[in-house]
Structures are given as C-alpha cells and as structure tokens.
Amino acid sequence: MLIALIARDKDGALQTRLDNRAAHLAYIEETGVVAQAGPLLDGDAMIGSLVILDVEDLSAAQAWADNDPYAKAGLFKSVELIPWKKVIG
Fold first, then answer.
1. Domain segments of the chain as ranges
2. Fold adopted by 2-83
3. What range does the record give for the signal peptide (predicted)?
C-alpha cells in the first residue's frame, strides 16, 4: 500500500531540520519502505517533507512516521498520511 506522508515544518525550524538530516536519511535507508522522498520548498528554503511509503497498511505508515528522527526532534507542525495511487512514473 502506498501512503503519501506530507509534513510541514514548524516556522523557524530550519536548524532542527539540518541538525537531524543525516539521521533522517539513515532512517530512510535502513527501513527500506520509502519509494520516493524529498523536501517541500519555498524558493530555496526547505519547509517540509513529502515521503511516499510502501507499507502494509496505514498503521505501519503511522509507526514509520512516529519513529522518523525529524518527528522525534519536533520538526513538524503537521503531518498527514494519505493513501496514494501511483498512476504515472
């Protein structure tokens, strides 16, 4: 099941993002469930994340989101988990 995780950073949290980026990328690599991922942008500034998870169900997506180093660091002001269907690409 594909799940789109859409997270918005708290205002002024760029340093939190930068401080936890290596741990976040390592988590993506070690969990092996991320199909696509990248930051949301405002110009050149990173303001959130879009992660496409390939997991068994919504509860697995929630568990992944809860254990993301960015989430544990308190980076996000909001996180949405939305079932997603790949059509192109």
1. 2-83
2. Alpha-Beta Plaits (3.30.70)
3. none
DSSP 56: S
Q: In the numeric block, which tokens belong to residue 24?
A: 């976040």
Cβ-in-10-Å burial (0-12, 13-18, 19+) of 42 comes to exposed
Bin 12: left if φ > 0, else alpha if -120 < ψ < 50, else beta.
Answer: left
Question: Which residues make Cβ contacts (< 8 Å) with residue 50, sequence separation at least 6?
Answer: 4, 5, 6, 7, 36, 37, 38, 39, 40
* Separation between Cα atoms, residue 7 and residue 17, nearest integer Å: 12
Q: What is the pLDDT of residues 49-86, one digit of tens each?
A: 999 999 999 999 999 999 999 999 999 999 999 999 99
pTM: 0.93
